[in-house]
Amino acid sequence: QVQLVESGGGLVQAGESLRLSCVASGRIFSDLFMRWFRQFPGKKGREFVASIFWSGDRSYYEPSLNGRFTISTDNAKNTVYLQMDNLKPEDTAVYYCNADPGDYWGQGTQVTVSS
Fold it and tell me: For residue range 3-17, what is the model confidence (pLDDT) as tens digits?
């Protein structure tokens, strides 16, 4: 079992930055596959944002982000981060952390970007 707790969301203006955190506990190992997803207001599905292995290897991003977001890990703090720069109103969503294998999810953290 893996437990995930996200934090760091909030209300910011367009162009500003936020750093989301996902603290993991339980059965953590280097090949644990970590991903960030987001769910837009009024939408049912969740969109892939970024992924990385717990070891810090092989990060990957949704191409439409154009380099604005950075995913990273801090094994000493059991935390996965999502650094979000140059935020846009269309980034407004609930952001979720996910771990595989096992398809574990956190509770989500709200990000709101005003124009």
Answer: 999 999 999 999 999
